[in-house]
Amino acid sequence: MPYFDAASAAPLHPVARQALLAALDEGWADPARLYREGRRARLLLDAAREAAAEAVGCRPDELVFTSSGTTAVHAGIAGALSGRRRVGRHLAHSAVEHSSVLHSAAAHEAAGGSCTEVPVDRFGAVDPAAFGGALRADTALACLQSANHEVGTEQPVAEVAALCAEAGVPLLVDAAQSLGWGPVPAGWSLLTASAHKWGGPAGVGLLAVRKGTRFSPQGPAGERESGRAPGFENLPAIVAAAASLRAVRDGAEAEAVRLRALVDRIRGVVAERVPDVEVVGDPVRRLPHLVTFSCLYVDGETLLHELDRREFSVSSGSSCTSSTLTPSHVLKAMGVLSEGNVRVSLPPGTAGADVDRFLEVLPDVVADVRERLGAPVAAPPSPAPAASLVVDALGRRCPIPVIELAKVIGEVAVGATVTVLADDEAARLDIPAWCEMRGQEYVGEEPADRGSAYVVRRLS
Amino acid sequence: MPYFDAASAAPLHPVARQALLAALDEGWADPARLYREGRRARLLLDAAREAAAEAVGCRPDELVFTSSGTTAVHAGIAGALSGRRRVGRHLAHSAVEHSSVLHSAAAHEAAGGSCTEVPVDRFGAVDPAAFGGALRADTALACLQSANHEVGTEQPVAEVAALCAEAGVPLLVDAAQSLGWGPVPAGWSLLTASAHKWGGPAGVGLLAVRKGTRFSPQGPAGERESGRAPGFENLPAIVAAAASLRAVRDGAEAEAVRLRALVDRIRGVVAERVPDVEVVGDPVRRLPHLVTFSCLYVDGETLLHELDRREFSVSSGSSCTSSTLTPSHVLKAMGVLSEGNVRVSLPPGTAGADVDRFLEVLPDVVADVRERLGAPVAAPPSPAPAASLVVDALGRRCPIPVIELAKVIGEVAVGATVTVLADDEAARLDIPAWCEMRGQEYVGEEPADRGSAYVVRRLS
């Protein structure tokens, strides 16, 4: 039963399990107490902090344990913004940050602050110069992930850090996806991470704040973790998190090479054997274990179900697989196709044979889903070119609007247009992406009584 | 090695351990995902929520899991205050709430809100009428613990809940200390608790919000736990928390009877065999497993160390055992002695023989500590009554100011005064408490160049 969604949560590392069991016996007491059970808990907490700090590349007193990567991001952003409130209330961040960053930014704006979202290229990376250009005299904080959680693209952290240093702006790096693979390039002021991404248990995040960074913890005061993470320390889990970080790092270099080759194989075979597919993200500057692709004319939820039936667990940024019915903000910012989206993220130790089996199964699964949806299998016949056409896909969900477009494009004359009426959010992203993949011209979007009218001109 | 500090953290319950191990294998994946590992995690999460809701006495959709009791309190208070912001910004709470409530109240005041602290009697309980009197037209929320964490006194929750209902004010009950022993009396609108207090793992708290209670979650938005607890669910620990809550509840009634008898024995023997001791808290309306007493002329930290050397783990609300060097706010609000303070809280399963051994050891340990500090062993001789005296205890820490006072009180004539100059915070509480215990008159406190001057009149 191959599990290919390590970017959501990795199965517990054996070292984490072992450390957790030991710490359940030795580390359940309150580390703030003076009696022996408390002192023992304190020793375990101190040792875990030292191990984690070493892996992060900071001093132990710069690092606190939070209850998750999300709370680390929330606390880090709120504390840094407040610490530099006198400088200004501007926050700069990339358009493809994790939702915990975007939600913090939205809360900051709701409270009267201002934000600049730095766009990304088609691979999902920010341009360092553009990021530098977003820094202003009143910028209190900049946020940039080390690598993207949906498409794996590495961000130019070192270059952006240098520009931030020049501008005197602290940089928070969300290292949730990369910390298990290696340290973040120097230059960050704040760093956050999440243990269950590297095989540690749930319930543990990291927040490191470099000495000298102005920081003012928000929310009710707390006595624990330097006042930066409220509540009783989740100690056995913290011990397990630190132990497994050290363990995965030991094997990370070799495993990265191996998984990178497996991902290269996926990238190649998918592009070759699945028709009408877009493999997204940077093919080189990327996480070793993660690849994402989108399949035209495919319903993401059905695709995931079919893969699950064949025992492959993957995730998707398609709108139909999210509770909000909007496509992933990452794919949107990249301007790439979102329909039939699949993210494969291999946990360390993934067998090559499992990847091979996935690659054998995938083309047929995609073909089956397309057939069921009535997707065009080849260029449609064009017996008598019609004048411009209007397709009504109102009330129909992704990928139907694109399928309907593809079905009729051959029916209009070269130079004529097809107008698709659609009210599914994904159409806004997927119709232009389809045009780019198919070499047709995306003319633009016009308001309509219901939804929008997307106009496409046939070029070939 | 008897551990008598269950009120800080209870050792992991065997059922919690077993459930945790199973859930580490079955429940590590993201419960929001559609594949089988995610669905399995979702089933575990749903089952844990149902079990916890049953124990709390609410609907599953009224209950979310937080990362600790403290974060449950923070989120509960912030959300309820914000939800009723149009009604007003007044918060009423007892003076002896857990620090998480007091810190939330302080943050609320810092943000422009107002708070009323309802005082407690010498047993540590609020008077329902006084609590009711603190409710105003602009009161957005009232907070009352089910039972006190330092002295074990049960609060009149049902009576206060009725008054809150009458006034249309939601009541948040912090049930951290009592939930393992039984459900909270009906009438609450919000309820919080902490799993590691009942033998569950660290990293799990509960927040229940009754349907119909206005609630607006604060901080950055989140997709998990109804938007009320940010971050990836700490699932294996949640499963263990729910399983152990059910398990401890099964045996709670019988165990409460047994521990209540052991605590009664401690209360009796301590009062009888330790001279100059004050056993605090309500002797009847109290938690079954907890008792606190304070010993005159004793340094709390030394006492804890000596008990630890004899393998008894207890905690203390004395100022010298806290990092802030102020005595516990609970003892302060009760107006009882804080020096030489010891809290004994018995975990379920505590052997009677261990309690007996503690009671054998304690009197000698207290006597030893007193002897080392030069405390008066009997009424001091009074050869030639002096006029009023001034004792300079500046720069000297608790219990020295009280010891110095006790040494010289016999040297002044009946009706004359002793003035103690002291700058240790605990003196403000302990000198009046000593007067009450000794039948002397506490005249009052006067400002001094350094610290304060505490004036005591000899009556006998």
Q: How big a fraction of the residues of chain A is strand? A: 15-25%
H/I helix tally of chain A? 12
CATH architecture of the largest domain in chain A: 3-Layer(aba) Sandwich
| Termini gap of chain A | 44 Å
Q: Please identify the top-level CATH class of the largest domain in chain A.
A: Alpha Beta
Return the domain count of chain A.
Answer: 3
Descriptive account of the structure:
The structure is a homodimer of 460-residue chains. In chain A, 38% of the residues lie in helices and 16% in strands. Chain A has 460 residues and is an alpha/beta fold. In chain A, helix 1 (14-26) packs antiparallel against helix 7 (235-273), helix 7 (235-273) packs across helix 10 (352-373) and helix 8 crosses helix 10. At the A-B interface, helix 1, helix 2, helix 3, helix 4 and helix 7 of A face helix 1, helix 2, helix 3, helix 4 and helix 7 of B. Chains A, B: Residues 391-415 form the UPF0033 domain. Chains A, B: Pfam families: Aminotran_5 (PF00266), TusA (PF01206). Chains A, B: GO terms for molecular function: cysteine desulfurase activity.
Secondary structure: elements and pairs:
The structure is a homodimer of 460-residue chains.
Chain A (H helix, E strand, L loop, with lengths): L13 H13 L9 H21 L6 E4 L2 H15 L6 E5 L4 H12 L3 E5 L9 H6 L5 E7 L11 H11 L3 E4 L15 E5 L10 E5 L25 H39 L3 E4 L9 E6 L4 H10 L19 H6 L6 E5 L6 H22 L15 E4 L7 H9 L8 E6 L4 H12 L2 E7 L4 E6 L3
Helix pairs in contact in A: 1-7, 2-7, 3-4, 7-10, 8-10
Cofactor (chains A, B): pyridoxal 5'-phosphate
Family (chains A, B): Belongs to the class-V pyridoxal-phosphate-dependent aminotransferase family. NifS/IscS subfamily.
InterPro entries (chains A, B): Aminotrans_V_dom, Cysteine_dSase, PyrdxlP-dep_Trfase, PyrdxlP-dep_Trfase_major, PyrdxlP-dep_Trfase_small, TusA-like, TusA-like_sf
